[in-house]
Structures
1.
Amino acid sequence: MVDKVTIRLEPLGQTLEVERGTPLQDFLFSHGIEFPCGGKGLCRGCRVKVLEGELSVNDAQRNMLKEGDLEAGWRLSCQCNAERDLAIELAQWKTDILVDDSLFEFTPREGLGVAVDLGTTTLVAQLLNLESGRVLGVRTALNSQARHGSDVMTRIAFALSEEGKGVLEKAIRKQIGRMIQGLLSTAGEGPRTLPPLTDVVLVGNTTMHHLFCDIDVSPLSCYPFEPENDGTQFFEAKELGWDLGENPRIRFLTCLGGFVGSDILAGILATRIHEHPTTVGLVDLGTNGEIVIGNRERIVCAATAAGPAFEGARISCGMRAASGAIFQVEKNNGRMKCHVLGNVEPRGICGSGLVDAVATGLDLGIILSRGRFTNKEDEIPLAPPVTLTQTDIRQLQLAKGAIGAGFRILVERMGTTTKDLECVYLAGAFGNYINRESARRIGLLDFDPRKVRPVGNTALLGAKLALFLDDEECNRIGKKTEHFSLSADPEFHEIYADEMLFPDE
């Protein structure tokens, strides 16, 4: 007989039975707890609080958690096993995953299509009637691979371990297959029978592309970070383990080079950069900040090693934009006033809040242009228990320095300047929520805020557009786009260091 223990999760009010000795990481991910460092005990992203029972403390937890936190019952769940009955507190993650409801021009065709945006953190799939263009259903989820690391580099490291690549590939293929099956089972347009599913288009960053398509990720782990790229990848449903009842065409669109994936190709399609008469920019701010500069004559692109600061990772109190996250900070009577998602007690800060907090700190004179605190302490309080540390500022400087250097080098390659760009499209969830004035204040997006245009989930919109395009048209844009390795540019490090400073204004 299997020896089991009972785990009560608060404030969810759920009770689980698991086999004694089961790592908490094995079952907490599906209940909203994330493991940014891949469960290595190198961050505080998976904290839980023991309400009843006991969880042991090891050296990793002593290194990452303050003595007062340990005494209050806080633990790193990635370092603990369920050895006895427990009641633990975990904040419920209520995250808005960015979908797309844009209207777009298309040439009608028969059948159904599914567009999938395969992100490092989140997944979105939409089912469309290809004749009417109508969206029949939407499914969103957290990427099940995230329990093995929240950013692409920890995911790659796990993939290079024994059997790691197979685990990640199987997990994501199975998850997306279930999402598509769920869309088909619940879709309907009235009493008439739905047409068959004829086409599935997937887009994602280079790491997600390789881990789905069974392509070796080892070139992504070391210089010069140039992956295999054989154009659009095609699959049979049975090959992926998908029981769809039909035999639709399944395509994962081509990457553009390095860490610039097919999600950015989709972004070019969505913003029509390849048709634009004047030069514009596109930036997707995430772990790898991808930048595109171009027009109908020429397109250049690059990925910057921005780090995960914009997504809340490697920030001492960092988290995603979910319930309990400080997402907005403003100046109020000479102090910082924090706004929290979900109108609940604060428990962390997300990327948009971090940018606001630093911008406000600069305006208040709490933070200097070099990033140092004027109070000569190692941290400044935001909203208890959330603080901003000197290391957090450094992480943001590294991220924004990489983005600034990327922009400067790419516009130079195009023979223009950042001031001459007609507009800059800001893609993705972070771009949807960031305060453009704050981004300019810290030097992250040094443009007239009126030129910066949030455009939402361009990866998903571009994937939907690709459902109506032939393979050659997508590949033609890919071949037209020149990829540059920023680290190979002789001026990169000097520009990078310069861009790390905050403006003095």
2.
Amino acid sequence: MKLGARIALGARRIHVLPTPISSFTAVATEASLANALRSAPIVAKLAERMQTRIGVSVQHGEAPPPGMPVLATGPGSAAMVEGHLSHGADQLICTAPTAPIPTHVVILVLDSTARDATLAVAASFLRHIPAEAVYLSVHSADTPEQARGECLRELLDVRTAALSRHGLDMRTETRFGGLDAELARELSAHERSMLVLGFSDLARFDGSRLAALLESDAPRPVLIVRPTGPEPERGS
């Protein structure tokens, strides 16, 4: 080929990954806290990498703002989260203004109707925050041996689907025991851990459980996904 010759470039295949996170709004009942949340390391890093904006809103129970709400962990956090979810928020993030960027992300989905949306949001998050991801599946300690094998096979299917549909490469963990205890064990095993929690039915993760996660002495960032749409699946 001679210098100056015309060439044509084309693409044989295009793979487009969805971005369910579009923007952020730091929400608090006081302007000083809302502004502090706006500068939280995890929020600032996401906005920088995604080249999106971070709004600020001082609210006292109104409808969720545009984009993903950013709420503070600590006293009263659980009630504020429930308020946003009950008013139609389908995803939000809770963090302390000074919480470091996580290096270990635990993904927990409480019902299968929330799985795909939760994995999509987790994948979008992890494309911008480099961290190890683990999908945690917790079953009753009384689960029969035969059923345990089925649980493991289902988990392999979830991992394959996450990689093929969302480009999410994650490790999987199956635990047999109490949900709260196993989740606490996984989160506490890493100093800079974070939870991505997905559910369709708010009753599956009530206020007391939210308070234990968000209002403890050492609260960790929590990203909640509650997809709107079909009636949530029961008993899964």
3.
Amino acid sequence: MIGLPAFEYRAPGTIGEACRLLADFGPRAMVVAGGTDLFPKVKRRQMQPEVVVDLSRIEGLSGISEDDDRGVVIGALTSLREIVAAKATLPTLSAAAAQVGAPQIRNVATIGGNLCVDTRCSYFDQSGEWRLASGNCLKDGGDICTVAPKGERCWAVSSSDLAPVVVALDATVRLVSVRGDREVSAADLYNNDGIAYLTKLPDEIMTEIRIPLRNGRRSAYSKLRRRGAIDFPILGTAAALQFDEEGICSEARIVIGAVASAPFRVAEAEELLVGSRLTDDVIEETAAAAARPVRPQANTDLGSRYRKWMASVYMARTLRSLR
């Protein structure tokens, strides 16, 4: 059994106090919400914070509310169990959250933590001793990416189930620091880089997620993984389509997750849907277009060619579910 290394534990009572701790300690500090991803990585020495700032005692950072002006507002500390239970309000987000981990994990894990979850790689996600013996990769402080040694970037993949969904739903997130707060779109929260995978700054804390309400919008999410439970996604397909009264698609957001370091929209696929009905031919053509930019690397479960092939299959399933 691998134990946790020593670190200083802080449990602030307010968001302002938490922000000050992050500003004071700088890169030596990390925040924890549910800890379902952070603590296993700390055990494997993938992350080595000197100070852990626990957000769980801060009031007002959890819960789901809805109003006409702001849409659905979700506190960043809302557990995935609560997201699953909100099926009537957040059907697609609920379905995606239900596929994360196991019930024990969903009871503790938070939506903010899942949206900010670290990228994954079959090489990096090993114990510290294994990585030391094999040589450090870029994400571990080394000089090369073991997946693409001739490249200059880390190819670790986005491992969040909820990220493709919130991007498809055109959500925004609120980030708070000692400098103030700002709101960014979910799409702009992510970088396609396995190391610097978030645009959120290290001293910023995500406090809420806002999903706009749209009449006539239908959305869905599909997930590929080896087992039917527990496993992280190795492909995620999300779609949010706006329909007029005659069933014609007027707006489309097509998102692919878990095949790159960030979830990404596919403009070509979106353009094929706008002005069309969801016929079998349109679905097949759109699914093929959605798969074209998919370039998975051999750094997760199952083969990269298989994941590329399944991108069109899963996107077609996602679109069919919207009919």
